Amino acid sequence: MAEVSAQTHIEAPAEKVWARLTDFTTYGEWNATHTSFPQGGPATLDVAATYQENMKLMGFPAEVTWTVEECEPARLLVTRGKGPMGVNLAMRYSLTPDDGGTTVRVDGEFTGAAISLMAGKLKDSATSALGESLRKLGALVG
Asked: Which CDD domains match (predicted)?
């Protein structure tokens, strides 16, 4: 298993951050691992909604089928994904209002047999991508 996380403070209210975070038409403007939604972004973020995303992880293309597990607008989005070679992913985006802005934390988890072979490199690559993504998100929103 590989676990990653990143956190930043964005000088904007949680509702504004959430609006950008869940605007799937502009997802590629800030998400460093995203390449496309082959069938468009999710129509809704209702629990059990599914959607496909093409990503690039450690330089390799990957298609992931995501399922929404939890969604509390302007507060929490949790998704679980199934990727290639039996890799499972989980992403948790949490937004916490503070000091007139919002603390955004992203926690990711990668599991599966293929992960044990490359856990260290994946953790480094994914941590870097999360940090870059949050910087870009903050620049777009703040």
From this structure: SRPBCC
What's the CA gap between 108 and 97, in Å, rounded?
Answer: 21
Are the beta carbons of 37 and 53 closer than 8 angstroms?
Answer: yes
Q: What is the mean pLDDT of residues 41-59?
A: 92
* Residue 136 CB-density burial (10 A; 0-12 exposed, 13-18 middle, 19+ buried): middle
Give the dihedral sign, CA 114/120/123/129.
negative
With vertex at residue 105, the alpha carbon angle to CA 99 and CA 108, rounded to the nearest 5 degrees, is 180
Q: Calculate the alpha carbon distances from 97 to 18, 110, 133 in Å.
A: 11, 28, 19
CATH number of 2-141: 3.30.530.20
- Whole-model pTM: value is 0.90
Q: Contact at 8 Å (CB) between 106 and 6?
A: yes
Q: Which residues of 50-62 are buried (b: 16+ CB within 10 A; e: fewer)?
A: ebbbebebeeeeb
- Asked if 81 contacts 90 with a C-beta cutoff of 8 angstroms, the reply is yes
- CA torsion sign for 78, 64, 106, 28 is negative
